[in-house]
Amino acid sequence: MKIIHTADWHLGKLVHGVYMTDQQEAVLEQFVDLVANEKPDAVIIAGDLYDRSVPPVEAVQLLEKVLFKINVELKTPVLAISGNHDSAERLAFGSSWYRHSGFYLQGKLAGCFEPVRLNGINFYLVPYAEPGVVREIFQDSSIQSHDEAMRRITWEIEKNIDPNEVNILVGHAFVIGGKTTDSERILSVGGSGCIDSDCFSPFTYTALGHLHSPDAIRHDTIRYSGSLLKYSFSEAKQRKSVSVIEIDSKGNLAIKEKSLTPLKDMREITGYIDELLDPAFYETQRLEDYLKVTLLDEGALLDPINKLRAIYPNILHLERKIDNIDLEKRQTLRLVQTERKTELDLFSEFYNEMTTSEFTEQKRELMTEVIDSVRKEVLFV
Amino acid sequence: MKIIHTADWHLGKLVHGVYMTDQQEAVLEQFVDLVANEKPDAVIIAGDLYDRSVPPVEAVQLLEKVLFKINVELKTPVLAISGNHDSAERLAFGSSWYRHSGFYLQGKLAGCFEPVRLNGINFYLVPYAEPGVVREIFQDSSIQSHDEAMRRITWEIEKNIDPNEVNILVGHAFVIGGKTTDSERILSVGGSGCIDSDCFSPFTYTALGHLHSPDAIRHDTIRYSGSLLKYSFSEAKQRKSVSVIEIDSKGNLAIKEKSLTPLKDMREITGYIDELLDPAFYETQRLEDYLKVTLLDEGALLDPINKLRAIYPNILHLERKIDNIDLEKRQTLRLVQTERKTELDLFSEFYNEMTTSEFTEQKRELMTEVIDSVRKEVLFV
């Protein structure tokens, strides 16, 4: 059996204020061609189809167009789950109808413990879920972390699994061994967002989404396909591809990466402004790419962004090396400070970042009470 | 052939700040039972399935549940169009898949000129569309009003219609002969929102949505089913029902109304506060109903709303007769004033209503220029 594994399309994504929809459409056209050529038995999309719970209309139309081509025109079964960026309820509307055409879209945990069976292979579609949701479903107050939640889910699946068959799990999670990029939200405090890869030992293959690089975990049977496109400059050096997996009836895997070529690459360039504005340099460059430019110059520069944009129209971010040094200093300082902070200080900073109103003495007192009462609860439960 | 015709569900509707989702769910359960008992060959939903383009998640879940029961469990074909309250693109996501199960959901005009054929009957599903959209599609600048737009659409349909067959149009529009209620937006300036009923003469039956009363038009072959529930106090005296239509092969119609019973009625009561708080009166009342209360008392009253709510918990609106008289006076005055206003005055009022910033002298000058230039354009084109 041949499967194409992709994830993290993030349709409707804005990067530094620029909608990626055109870029996404161009790469998805290549993806549809790939499906047409490879003729896989199934396509897996491991979550974050959209970038947010209410995506823009253009993103909705693009997703429908692409899925229609793959599932209806090319008659390829599609197995998809919702990720942390999707609204499970909104995305999954209509999934009962989609199944008739072999489009299996799992938004909620209910039902994810039963496999979708295709060509004798069992697919377990496990959408992203907060530990609190899993705790509710199983009425098990011991489930606090993502690891505990996923462990409970896979245990439920294992109860009825036949280890002599090929069993594939599709998930959207932060599995340990991976490295994060700054386009992912910071998931964890003290590691509670991470899941140990041994959760997935019952499965022949685990097709993951969430981390954006295919190198995020190195494991024989657990894999991130990586995102469709580079979605932040921290991903500038990542390969972007989809995975083509061949599985024989004994569960042996052969994995290939197929790269997709964006219209515009996303990359960083560093130098002195005069170098960057020198034709000898810029004539070697793909000028339309999305760029983060770091200038090495010290001292005042007159309107550098507009001078640079005259040559490189798609600069998304400009910074000065000198700023970076400052920033690094500040971050080091911040790290040192963070370690010493009380819950109240942390909340007060959070409040100031998220609102425009003052964190008054009255609010401080109220919050102190809340923190104290939570402490007591934790002690007495 | 038997058809059930409904429209204007407005799922996710807020009435005076209260979500109607529970009420809608209760009535839709009755609707599903009706479908199960009547066993129609099709269910028509003539637009405004949702109340807004991005409905709350509860409304999304309710719609999916109800449609699943009707279309998948009861195996009843469903013919639905988007109304002016729906987002055509968001609602119609997945419609290509739904067709496989006999759920025909038309969001856009493209494709609406070809009928859906069920049991030898042709259904033309014409979603709500602004005249500008129809103008674009047909590249016909003469299309300015809703009447011209619908005339162009039905003319396109008529080209290929067989008048010896039974042809049904499903539409969402303000057809003349109807009377509006204040839960509808005012559509028209100088009648441009209205459509003459003769547009629909080629059709055996025209199943409409948009106006909320089954009495909105009196015509042998054109009908509003009316909304699912009362959605404003101006609808307090309307019957709420769905229409059961039987059509024989010669196109003869037999129409019955089937009423649905809400958990809470929506109605108005008027009286002096002492009367309304008198057990002799209120013991004859369904106290849980949604109420608009008009008090006849003059002079000061101490906290009347809380006194009344102790008996009638679901008062949505309280007014004093005395206020009404004032209001009527003010409205008459306003009407007189409106007639004399310049475009600039009207815009300035609009600006003040819509923004919190001042309509400064500079803005006034700018707007004067804009108005003048538009005037010139109108003169010279």
From TrEMBL, chains A, B:
Gene3D superfamilies, per database record: 3.60.21.10
Domain Calcineurin-like phosphoesterase: from-to ranges: 1-184
Record-level Gene Ontology MF annotations: 3'-5' exonuclease activity; endonuclease activity
Keywords per UniProt: DNA recombination, DNA replication, Endonuclease, Exonuclease, Hydrolase, Nuclease
Protein name: Nuclease SbcCD subunit D
Family: Belongs to the SbcD family.
Pfam families: Metallophos (PF00149), SbcD_C (PF12320)
NCBIfam families hit by this protein: sbcd (TIGR00619)
Nuclease SbcCD subunit D C-terminal domain mapped to chain residues: 263-355
One GO process term, biological-process aspect: DNA replication
Role this protein plays: SbcCD cleaves DNA hairpin structures. These structures can inhibit DNA replication and are intermediates in certain DNA recombination reactions. The complex acts as a 3'->5' double strand exonuclease that can open hairpins. It also has a 5' single-strand endonuclease activity.
Self-association state and partner proteins as the record states: Heterodimer of SbcC and SbcD.
Keyword Mitochondrion set for record: no
